[in-house]
Specification:
By secondary structure, the protein is mainly alpha-helical. 51% of the residues lie in helices and 0% in strands. The protein has one domain (7-49). The protein has two helices and no strands.
Length: 59
């Protein structure tokens, strides 16, 4: 999904990964992703969620 040509699919896949990264709930001792992976994921999401032309993609 992450490599899809459709930008809407890519954004939805990244949002799903973000939800997985945050799925540990309120127990901070359980982290499904390490800090470096979460940072890389956040930067990848930012590229698609922060666009100059807000009407470019429909999410």
């Amino acid at each position: 999904l992450y490599r899809s040509e459709d930008q809407n699919v890519r954004v939805r896949a990244l949002v799903g990964l973000c939800k997985c990264a945050a799925s540990a709930g309120d127990d901070c001792s359980r982290q499904p992703m390490d800090d470096e992976s979460r940072t890389k994921l956040a930067m990848a999401c930012r590229k698609y969620l922060v666009v100059e032309n807000a009407n470019k993609y429909s999410v």
